[in-house]
């Protein structure tokens, strides 16, 4: 099982650094099959707002306006959101989990099964291997030896066990996940999984969070280097797609941009000038259709772990009244 943490959402690079080396330029996918630059302005849709600035692509036509421009907007009401999310994932809360089955263990496999869930909690396995002796109560875990000592946080050494959200499985049954992709594949060691539209990705902090529901979503990362030929640093995984304008606005209260406030109206204006994609593009491109989505990609570090079962998932905290 792959467990994804160390989310990178501020992808602009260091202040004063060469913009051409900004991380966002190499994070994501060419969603529209075009390469939009300051001189080649072709796009799959027209700006939703008159006079909106051109959103350029990254390397090789990568579409990732989220990584290029959106983090300062996201931080309007949620200063420190990136550290909150990484801290929670470090504790084993809200990490994306990809349970991989039917893989031949090689660098190439034409058909792999991937089950998607997110972690409620994680804790080290027994010394020498095996599931930990813990009692899961709601969203928490306690050592079975006394029933009151909280289970320790993951060590991230490959021997940790993680419990997935029960609401990502039908009737809490681990055999009936909401999202199971049977058409994933591995090429050159890299897993490629096209996920169902609007698969929820819940990013949880202690005081704030958000839910991403992308269309045309795809997840990739080198599982061969993770499981078969481990490297000194964990492999990077990318999840990207199209994030609808309305879906982004709906997350405002979860990041402190409360509905009805001047800040929320500012979010509406800035986002309207930023959308660069279609949430549901037609089979035949029509660049006259107004853009209604933000091209999005986020990066994680991938770790190996074991699936422990299901537990009650935490709610997304909201700082708004």
Mind explaining what this structure looks like?
- It is built from five helices and 13 strands.
- It is globular, with a radius of gyration of 20 Å.
- 13% of the residues lie in helices and 32% in strands.
- The protein has 321 residues and is α+β, with helices and mostly antiparallel strands.
- The two termini are 38 Å apart.
- β2 and β3 form a beta hairpin.
- The strands form two sheets. The protein has an eight-stranded antiparallel β-barrel with strand order 1-2-3-7-8-10-11-12.
- It has one domain.
Note the main attributes of this structure:
5 helices, 13% helix, 321 residues, eight-stranded antiparallel barrel, two-stranded antiparallel ribbon, alpha+beta
User: Overall pLDDT, averaged?
Assistant: 94
What is the strand tally? 13
Number of domains: 1
Low-confidence stretches are none
**Rg, alpha carbons:** 20 Å
* Strand proportion: 25-35%
Termini separation comes to 38 Å
- Side by side, the strands of the main sheet go 1-2-3-7-8-10-11-12
Count of helical segments?
5
Describe how the helices and strands are arranged.
Elements: E1 2-8, H1 65-74, H2 81-90, E2 96-101, E3 109-124, E4 134-137, E5 140-143, E6 160-165, E7 180-187, E8 190-194, E9 200-204, E10 209-222, H3 223-227, E11 236-244, H4 245-250, H5 262-272, E12 293-304, E13 306-311
Parallel strand pairs: 6-13
Antiparallel strand pairs: 1-2, 1-12, 2-3, 3-6, 3-7, 4-5, 7-8, 8-10, 9-10, 10-11, 11-12
Short note summarizing the structure:
With 321 residues, the chain is α+β, with helices and mostly antiparallel strands. Helices cover 13% and strands 32% of the residues.
């Amino acid at each position: 099982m792959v467990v994804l943490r160390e989310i990178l959402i501020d992808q602009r690079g260091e202040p004063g650094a060469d913009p051409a080396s900004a991380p966002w330029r190499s994070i994501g996918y060419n969603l529209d099959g075009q390469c939009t630059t300051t001189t080649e302005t072709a796009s799959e849709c027209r700006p939703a707002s008159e006079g909106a600035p051109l959103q350029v692509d990254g390397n090789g036509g990568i579409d990732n306006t989220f990584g290029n421009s959106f983090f300062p907007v996201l931080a309007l009401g949620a200063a420190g959101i990136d550290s909150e999310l990484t801290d929670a994932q470090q504790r084993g809360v809200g990490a994306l989990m990809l349970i991989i089955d039917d893989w031949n263990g090689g660098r190439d496999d034409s058909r792999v099964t991937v089950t998607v869930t997110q972690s409620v909690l994680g804790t080290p396995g027994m010394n020498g291997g095996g599931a930990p002796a813990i009692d899961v109560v709601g969203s928490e875990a306690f050592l079975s030896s006394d029933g009151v000592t909280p289970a320790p946080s993951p060590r991230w050494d490959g021997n940790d066990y993680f419990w997935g959200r029960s609401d990502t499985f039908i009737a809490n049954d681990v055999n009936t996940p909401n999202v199971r992709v049977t058409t994933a594949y591995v090429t050159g060691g890299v897993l490629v999984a096209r996920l169902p539209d609007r698969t929820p990705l819940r990013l949880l902090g202690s005081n704030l969070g958000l839910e991403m529901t992308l269309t045309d979503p795809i997840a990739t990362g080198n599982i061969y280097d993770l499981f078969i030929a481990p490297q000194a640093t964990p492999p990077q995984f990318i999840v990207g797609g199209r994030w609808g304008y309305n879906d982004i606005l709906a997350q405002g209260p979860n990041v402190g941009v409360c509905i009805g406030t001047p800040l929320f109206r500012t979010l509406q204006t800035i986002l309207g000038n930023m959308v660069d994609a279609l949430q549901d593009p037609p089979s035949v491109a029509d660049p006259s259709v107004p853009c209604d989505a933000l091209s999005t990609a986020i990066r994680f570090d991938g770790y190996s772990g074991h699936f422990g079962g299901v537990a009650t998932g935490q709610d997304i905290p909201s700082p708004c009244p």
